[in-house]
Amino acid sequence: MKKGLVIEGGAMRCMFTAGVIDTLMKAGIDFDGAIGVSAGAAFGCNYKSRQIGRVLRYNVKYASDPRLSSWQSWLKTGDLYGADFCYRELPVELDVFDTAAFQKNPIDFWCVATDINNGEAVYHKLISGKEADLQWIRASSSIPVFARPVEIGSRKYWDGGISDSIPIKFFEKIGYDKNVVILTQPLSYRKEASKLYPALELVLHQYPAVLKKLKTRAKDYNDVLNYIRKKEVQGKMLVIRPPYPLEIGTMEKDPQELRRVYQIGVKEAKKNLQAIKTYLSE
User: Motif span (GXSXG) (predicted)?
Assistant: First the structure.
């Protein structure tokens, strides 16, 4: 039996996720592997480095810093979230990501990115927590139009949510049969087809494989939600999700709002702690 943690993305909705993972770490709940997409990877990697409170701390401290996220950054560099600040200055200098602890912890941590040439999901296992891994997390979090493609080796990548928003089937495929899934939308949520798709066709016309994925993304996402719900009802999966829409901005600057959503995650995780322990021990 392999125990897995699957972490959805969702920009600052993932402050909910931060509250959940901090609570699980405090409770001493371990997994054999974890996988995150987009902000789920950027925040979730702290599970492997065992840095309780880090996500809340640096987001609150730098929420108003335009280097973290701003339209100025987008206009200047092509990245809504500043690449150098988020994936070098912050983890290396300002709120140091503990690469030694990351490497020591036996849990495998994966992130998902999308190959812009074929539109396929690429699942990458992070090894060191250093520069190469941070580039994969950046790729996983780089949304088309709002971020430049991230070049790694001879390939270029965008956000993992384009091709696999909730990579539960990948984790099951590689042998994880006891999975806890952290979602950032409530039970009733289903994604609607984007009304901006015609505009995306104009902007992203040189990336037909990406456009093809974006066109079916709502259906693909909802299909995975239905799959997760079916297994949850059968007792074959455990899901932690917000009890209601989180209603937090993509580039939320208000520390009180960040703390509010974080505390919802703490509360939901505490409510589910015994159920999680029982599920993982069965």
Answer: 36-40
38 is catalytic: yes
d(CA 114, CA 155): 10
Residue 183: name the closest of 110, 140, 245 by CA: 245
pTM, whole model, 2 decimals?
0.98
Comparing C-alpha atoms, which of 58, 47, 53, 119 is closest to residue 87?
A: 58
DSSP string over 210-266: HHHHHHTHHHHHHHHHHHHHHHHHTTS-EEE--SS-----TT---HHHHHHHHHHHH
Q: Looking at this protein, which amino acid is placed at residue 69?
A: S
Q: Which among 22, 108, 133, 159 is annotated as catalytic? A: 159
Q: Which of 38, 49, 141, 163 is catalytic?
A: 38
* 164 in catalytic set: no
- Indicate the helix (H) or strand (E) that contains 139: helix 131-140
From start to end of the chain, where are the E strands?
Answer: 3-7, 33-37, 108-115, 121-126, 150-152, 155-159, 178-182, 238-240
Structural domains present in the chain: 2-64+99-281 (3.40.1090.10)
